[in-house]
Input
Amino acid sequence: MPADFPGAFDGLREILKRHADGMIVQADTPTEFTVVTRAQAPNGKPMWFGCVSLKKSAVTYHLMPLYFNPKLQAAVPPELLRRKQGKTCFNFQRPDAALFAMLDELTRQGREGFVRHGLLEVGPVSQDRLAAAMRAGGEDPEALARLRRRKGRAAAAKRQSTTRKRLLEKTAQKARRR
Output
């Protein structure tokens, strides 16, 4: 079956648009449709709800309510899991009515969770409210914070090691030239 990226993009865009009532459409172009909430995350930026992007190899559908909600992750149907990449992304090359219906239902559930936890309300979202929403979804915010710190330290160590290695290589090159 041939790819139909424009058809997939249009279908996925309509799903996200249907659930974007009261949110802000941050981008609406032929290759991207991004929706953010009116709530401000603890970092002061709008909370990202979802995005549809037309890429080189697929049309991607990102649904951020999945990111910190293991209960919603568990609700992803097996047929849709085959399209899943990472925690929040689904890839498509053509429209698929059955899979799009499942994604529509998942998006509805994600929106309901955001509404239930006040994540669509205008204004700042405190760290406590965000942590409560995460706990309600089955996530441990403290464990997630520890994981992020550990990954950050590992990335910093890798950067430092790479920088040190490059410096040694340059020094060796200079020594060989002499």
Observations:
- Helices lie at 5-18, 70-74, 78-81, 97-116, 127-136, 141-177.
- The chain has a mean pLDDT of 88.
